[in-house]
Amino acid sequence: MPRPIAVGSLALALSVGAAVDAQTQLYSNRDAARAVRNAENVLSIAVTMYRERLDPSQQAAFDDSQRRWADYRKATCDSRARGIADVSTHEVIFAICMWQHALERIDALIQLMTCADGDLSCPALSAAPNNRWRGP
After folding, report:
1. Are 54 and 75 in contact (CB under 8 A)?
2. What is the rounded distance in angstroms from the CA atom of residue 48 to the CA atom of residue 43?
3. pLDDT tens digit string along 48-100?
4. How many angstroms separate the CA atoms of 56 and 79, rounded?
5. Single pTM value for the model
6. Most buried residue, 55, 95, 106, 111, by most Cβ within 10 Å?
7. Which CATH number fits domain 2-110: 3.40.50.1820, 3.40.630.30, 1.20.1270.180, 3.30.590.10?
8. Cα 16 to Cα 25: distance, rounded to the nearest angstrom
């Protein structure tokens, strides 16, 4: 998958830029936060679209799983950022982690929304065709 390589390259580029000067670190933090916001917006759309395909009992279970996923993601990213970053790069490392997890969750939801007929692992097979994922 090209995404882990891209994330690693982004992290390297941002950390090298951070070493240049404080202003570059400020820009890196801002850009990383913007990337997270953009991913969060797409994730929110994907969550809403997928949730609409579920019946009420499935929605409750999905909502619970989504809350647990968000808690897991935050704890994982907190741990990662504390473990490898100094004060100046903590924010960027945390943001990159949050961004990467958001992209992975979006991919998982897209897979659930595009299951083939007969796939018993997809709870939302009865959804109307107009609810199909078409991107943001």
Report:
1. no
2. 9
3. 999 998 989 899 999 999 999 999 999 999 998 887 766 778 888 999 999 99
4. 35
5. 0.71
6. 95
7. 1.20.1270.180
8. 9
